[in-house]
Amino acid sequence: MTTMTSTRRSFSRQTILLIWSTLLAVTVGIAFLIPLWWTFVNSLRPGSETFSYLNPLQWQTFFTTTPTLDNYAALLDSDLGRAILNSLFVSVVTVIVGLIVCATAAFGLSAFRFRGQAALFSVVILSFLIPFDAIAIPLAAMFRDWQLQNTFLGLILPGIGNGMAIFLLRTFFLAIPEELVEAGRLDGLGWWGIFTRIYLPLSRPALIGAGLMLFLFQWQAYVWPLLMGTDEGHILGPVALSNMQGQFQVDYGVLFAASMVLVLIPLAIILGFQRYFIQSVSTTGLK
Amino acid sequence: MAGVALLFLLPALVALLLLRLAPAGVALVDSLSRTTLLGGTSFVGLGNYLELFANADFQNSLAVTLLFAVIINPLQIAAAFLLAILFTRRAAGSKFWRSMVILPIAVPPAVSAVVWSVIYRPDGLANGFLAVIGIPPQPFLTSPYQALLSIMILLSWIGVGYWMMFLIAGLNDIPASYYEAASLDGASWWRQTWSITLPLLRRPLAFVLVADTVSNFLVFAPVQILTKGGPNGSTNLLMHDLYTRAYTFGDINKAQAEVVILVLITVVIVAAQFRLLKTEDQS
Q1: Alpha-carbon distance values, B53 to A260, B31, B50, B56, B123 (Å)
Q2: Can you tell me the distance from the alpha carbon of B131 to that of B117, in angstroms, rounded to the nearest whole number?
Q3: SS3 of B133, please?
Q4: Deepest of A146, B37, B156, B172, by most Cβ within 10 A of its Cβ?
Q5: How far is A97 from chain B (nearest CA, A)?
Q6: What angle, rounded to 10 degrees, do the helices at A2-43 and A252-272 form?
Q7: What angle do CA A88, A94, A96 make, to 5 degrees?
């Protein structure tokens, strides 16, 4: 009898705990979602209505019964749309070229054993000790001397040599058994063949993780594109958006639509490759 | 074989040397000299640094950056830790609500600054919420007392979910049997957190502490977009100070000295991380 009441009591205590943690989880989740949700809802209504439902707050603040895609359509033939396409181009080229550069480097650091290897690896480590934004201004001065200002080359170059991506790929490559390499050699494969026929196909998860890292670096960049791409043809999404915010007459609907696009593209990629994203994040933590 | 390996390494090494290490070197060299209006360059040793440290604007910027670091880093880590605990507890739909917290990771810093500039407007969403609980409208970005705090809130919105992910990974690595044993011994929740969770979470916590600190030293987009360092220099963090020094005032040599200082600060912090994680492996 006594044991029964005590189990019942501990059961109800657990239920109460579950309810409290659920309530807390829901509140925190919604609190974090609100800024983005509000942005999303406002991207679906005319810019003139952005501030209509804020004082006092009401259900229309966070919902709209008459959603319209006009703001997104307006984006298509605006400078902002062009800037987002520029961002996409820069990021995609960075991922492709960057993966080639980083994967070959990781291969050089893991498939061979030679003197000076440790020294070269420490160059890689040293390069990611220095955060890119911190050296953006001296680098911009160099790029100006080389006439790379307002060129896609100038925007893309800093993204391709990513010490962290090399580190991630190297860790993965080191786990590939030597016997495979030896077998490949016996079959007459050259080093390039071993790299492209054995290492790359086996490393898809790591390549995706590194690719995500390269993509997000470019997509989220602000300091560098602000220094390097200022003319109409080379301005990137985040910079164009911030320029618009400073203008006297702002169409908030279009502003929010552009914000949503700039958020949804990386979000879709992160969600699609969630597994690899978490893997690349945990490698960043040198777990 | 070393030759072949070098061929594979060459593109990345050139990129890293040219695009990461060389600019740091250029900054160091430039910071030690001064260019006159006539175009002549002379070596001044530590002159730029001495003048910088005597400059009231730079002193203010350094003080603001330190104040900012001292407040935001512990706050973000504490928040990330508490949220990590909350979202690893049993709760209905825990994974779903957790993803709401992680969502802002996808928002580029410049985009979040633009969105929050609208939220922080006098007639914006933030004041709408304050009105609900009966607080009069706040100036947020235009008040020297609130601007830095407003930027901290916006940065925490982006950052806390990211740091939380590392801590959740760490929490999931702790064997459940430890807690079961502790519960059998009658240890309270506080006691379990203190004696099991915190010690076993030291490694991810150390990483988060260092990485968060470094990233907060480099904050730029929100300052440049929202406050331009104002009002009264109250949000003039180092990255913004050196940017305006280089491009608004055109004092490139002192700006380079500031770059060197910033790089030194971050290198020291990251080096501390490597030490922290290494000594732990040995013990």
Answers
A1: 43, 13, 5, 8, 40
A2: 18
A3: coil
A4: B156
A5: 10
A6: 130
A7: 105
Q: Which two tokens stand for residue B55?
A: 């400059």
Whether B17 has its CB under 8 Å from any CB of chain A: the answer is yes
Q: Which residues pair with B34 in a beta bridge?
A: B42
Q: Which two tokens stand for residue A224?
A: 């560098």
Q: What are the pLDDT digits (tens) for A93-104?
A: 999 999 999 999
Q: Which helix (H) or strand (E) holds B42?
A: strand B41-43
CB-based contact, A46 to chain B, within 8 Å: no
**3-class SS shares of chain A: helix, strand, coil, % to 5:** 75, 0, 25
Beta strands at B33-35 and B41-43: parallel, antiparallel or unpaired: antiparallel
Measuring CA to CA, how many Å separate B94 from each of A29, B100, B152, B197? 9, 10, 26, 20
List all residues 6 or more positions away from A251 whose beta carbon is below 8 Å from its beta carbon.
A47, A71, A74
CB contacts < 8 Å between A and B, how many?
276
Query: What are the Cα distances from residue A27, in Å, to A10, A34, B45, B77?
Result: 26, 11, 56, 20
Please state, for a pLDDT cut of 70, what percent of chain B lies above it. 97
CA distance linking residue A278 with residue A65, whole number of Å: 37
First to last CA, chain B: 38
Biggest distance spanned by C-alpha atoms of chain B: 80
Q: Which of B104, B116, B214 sits opposite A131 (nearest CB)?
A: B214
CB contact under 8 Å between B12 and A262, yes or no, is no
Judging contacts by C-beta atoms under 8 Å, the chain A residues touching residue B241 are none
Check whether A1 has a pLDDT greater than 50: no
Q: Is residue B45's pLDDT more than 90?
A: no
- The shortest C-alpha distance from B245 to chain A (Å) reads 11
Position B194: which residue type?
W
Confidence grade of residue B108 (pLDDT, cut at 50, 70, 90): very high
A67: number of Cβ within 10 Å:
12
How far from the centroid of its chain's Cα atoms is residue B117's Cα? 20
**Closest Cα partner for A112 from A168, A189, A207, A195?**
A195
Question: What residues contact residue A208 under an 8 Å CB cut-off, 6+ apart?
Answer: A273, A276
- Report DSSP state, residue B251: -
Long-range contacts of B36-40 (CB under 8 A, 24+ apart): none
Identity (one letter) of the amino acid at B155? Answer: L
Element (H, E) at B33: strand B33-35
Q: Hey, which residues does B33 pair with through a beta bridge?
A: B43
B176 touches chain A (CB under 8 A): no
> Is A114–B1 a contact, with Cβ atoms under 8 angstroms apart?
yes
Q: Which residues of A touch B118 (CB under 8 A)?
A: 50, 252, 255-256
User: ipTM score here?
Assistant: 0.88
Residues whose CB is less than 8 angstroms from the CB of residue B277 and which lie 6 or more positions away in sequence, other chains included:
A286, B203, B206, B207
Strand partners, B35: B41
Question: How many angstroms separate the CA atoms of A97 and B118, rounded?
Answer: 37
Which chain A residues have a beta carbon less than 8 Å from that of B271? 129
Q: Is residue A6 very low, low, confident or very high in pLDDT (cuts 50, 70, 90)?
A: low
